[in-house]
Design goal:
Blueprint lengths: L21 E7 L1 H4 L6 H6 E8 L11 H11 L8 E5 L4 H16 L2 E3 L4 E5 L2 E5 L5
Helix pairs in contact: 3-4
Length: 134
């Protein structure tokens, strides 16, 4: 929030200011997909073939349902219906519920959620992984 003349408060700006879209191949959604930093304007402006969605803390509401819904709303405003792949880094209840509740809209918008089918084992830990070819 910035202050104008006479100490009046001006409207809070969005995380991504309005402007022309930027096209990228791969985007990591910042801050564990927190809705304080990513909104509809982000997805209207930052257009990518792949979005990586991080976050596995249900207490902190990560990933944020609002961010996932913002992807749908923002993508609906794109002029083209290019394929978008959403890559979650963790399996979470929020992601599973969102996927099931919005699956039809995802299909209409040409959004695919990529499930990991591989496991990487490194020293004493193992974790799901996926390979992306650009």
């Amino acid at each position: 929030i910035s202050k104008g003349p006479g100490n009046t408060k001006m409207a809070k700006s969005t995380a991504v200011p309005p402007g022309p879209p930027v096209y990228l191949d791969l985007v990591y959604i910042p801050n564990h997909s927190n809705s304080k930093n990513v909104d509809v304007e982000f997805f209207k402006r930052v257009r990518s073939s792949y979005y990586v969605v991080s976050g596995n803390d249900s207490a902190a509401e990560e990933p944020s349902r609002a961010v996932l819904d913002s992807l749908l709303e923002g993508k609906a405003q794109w002029e083209s219906n290019m394929q978008v792949t959403l890559i979650p880094t963790h399996d979470s209840e929020v992601m599973r519920e969102w996927y099931q509740e919005t699956h039809e809209k995802q299909q209409d918008l040409n959004i695919m959620v990529l499930a990991s089918s591989s496991t990487v084992v490194m020293q004493d830990e193992s974790f799901p992984a996926c390979k992306i070819e650009l």
